[in-house]
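ok trying this again, last paste got cut off
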Amino acid sequence: MNANHTRAAFATALLTAAGGVVAADPAPCAAIADNTERLACYDTAVGRPHQEAPAPVAHTESSAFSSRWELDAEDKKGTFLIRPYKPTYILLARWSDSPNRQPSSPNPLNTVSTENNIDSAEAKYQISFKTKLWEGLFGRHGDLWMGYTQQSNWQMYNKRFSSPFRETDYEPELMAVFRTNLDAGAGFKVSMMSIGLNHQSNGRSQPYSRSWNRLVGQVGIERGDFALVIRPWLRFAEKASKDDNPDITQYMGHGDIQAMWRVGEHGFGLTVRSTLLTGSESRGAVQFDWTAPIHRNLKGYMQLFSGYGETLIDYNHRQTVFGLGVSLVDWL
């Protein structure tokens, strides 16, 4: 018996003594080109569960989705770590051409009877994060994430009425995220898909209460410094007597498309939402975002919004809003 055979026999004996499982032949794994799948193949061959974070290796190609969602083996960081989700920012000044002073809804219990003292200028901030709850939902495929986003509109300059918070929207989510790595042609790659449960509400009592629950899908497509997220959703029906906003999909539609570009140190984002209807029922919104470097991770931030649903209380109110502030986390 030569030295190589002796070492192989010794390794097999160790594996058998440690776990009672003899290693499979790992040789076929070497032919797998994809880093993540090749590593999983080796793990399976030696009887090791493929989960949690492996030792990091150098990236061969930058992937925004893999970095944010830990899709590739080299980006895995394990569970229960706080990670960025949607943009985190503060608009120090935000101006609306049509403040919603008297929110309404087809449900009479959710219609305000008198006008509120709302200024057209206010501040707005958003915080958003996520954490991985479970790595490897189906064998070595898919991760379970929990996300949370909070957006607040603050009448900071309305000193006459003690600068109240006009609206705060809370949005917890539970998402199953899958690495796809599909070639879409022309250099584009479908990097990930997800399906999840989404709840959004403002936590207020009637007549200001607004809420809805959705099944939300995501498809992430990227090429270099460009990324596209297609998000269809399906609203869960509620009893008419308890529905704060029964016509919300007539204004918020059934999905949106988010496009993000990275140009040097500048980031550009465009979000489009539509009901896909015509005539007077053609409603939706468009939002443009721009971040520019200030100092290290601090960035200047500009946001322009036009349409319905800038906040949940404004779901059926049309306005154009312009804001300036700073950003700590953007899309890419």
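PB: full thing came through this time. The CA atoms of residues 291 and 301 lie 5 Å apart.
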